[in-house]
Amino acid sequence: MNYDIIVIGSGPGGYVAAIRAAQLGFKVAVVERAELGGICLNWGCIPTKALLKSAQVFNYLKHASDYGITAGESVPDFESIMKRSRGVADQMSKGIQFLLKKNKVDVLKGTGRVRPGKIVTVEAGHAGQSEEPSEVKEYTAKHIIIATGARSRDFPNFKQDGKKIIGYREAMNLPKQPKSMVVIGSGAIGSEFAYFYHSIGTQVTLIELLPNVVPLEDEEVSKTLAREFKKAGMSVMTGANVESVDTKGKLCKVTVKTKKGDEVIEAEVVLSAVGIATNIEGIGLEEVGINTEKGKVAVDDFYKTNVDGYYAIGDIVHGPALAHVASHEGIICVEKIAGKNVEALDYGNIPACTYTNPEIASVGMTEQQAKNAGYEIRVGKFPFTASGKATAAGNREGFVKVIFDAKYGEWLGAHLIGDNVTEMIAEVVVARKLETTGKEIIEAVHPHPTMSEAIMEAVAQAYGECVHL
Known about the structure:
Distance between the termini: 66 Å
Number of helices: 14
Number of strands: 24
Low-confidence stretches: none
């Protein structure tokens, strides 16, 4: 059975690439060994947001009196929260199934491997799960796109066992709520789970090796999130290295090296949230002769590998491992195959979001990065304490911070922390894409009262024109 394009993996890179290819008139198949939608939709982006929404609702109920509302005692039902999250993921997975069918994309269930000569083999089921011999089918395609994604990274000194030391997948499907938890790693995944479990009553200790939590963010943003976590009662340790985890007893004993010496923390569960590992083993790359670099597939600006007819997108290639990045890479890849005039993706204009409370959103350079790059900069900052909408909503924590090149006016970066900022960052991404000036942002009328007008106010502050500070 022959195709124009076969995509291996149906995550946000794979299924988007497959559907866009079908829209362009190609005969397309997508290979998937587990659930359609991949990790993001089934065990990542979507179900975690459902968990975080439950935590947010519970938080509102706890503070109902702050809004003039008398409510009875509220208790989180852990099993129901988890069940709702799984229901949301299942619903979205069915949506992907509908979209693939609507666009006449064939779904080949099983584990896909690339072979020389533009061949893909598909082994029924998830390879390695059964000792029974599996049926293997062979397909050919003019173009093969590898989008196999990534998984939680394992470490020898705290190796995941799925019960006491877990990854993000188990964290979304625990049979009961732990009374205590240590979260190792304070990137987006670690911080979000730390916030969720702490919000519903688990005693959480968040441990970060680097000097600040969410270490890729602007330092002011990182310090603000740490302060809010601590204010809420979470234990936060930075500049701390987990040396070992002893799981022999009823509680895990986590040995942490700090500036003050070794410290042992006990917890029911340890969540390892330190990075990801790419799924590039055992899929035929070596047999085909596809080059890899530092655990990722080497590709050009349009995701072509060194072997003609083979491409790679998403977490397995260079760039940030984010769902929206994978989707755009998939579109660029198939449009290039179709002969369209496409631009390479600008990795300097990728928004990043962390869905804690307060939320974090950013794009472009941090203030320190801009200084290190030699820019003379203008910095504007507007705190939500000065926002009418934030004050009315009862959540005034956070700010909008913008960074401009003082010489030419280029918008170098923006860093937001506060309510709903993940919905606001797109304005900055579009403005930077269009090379919009600060003056144009100031002159563009923003609705009042909104959280989004804080972007205009921060830009005005950078240029000495802010009225409300």
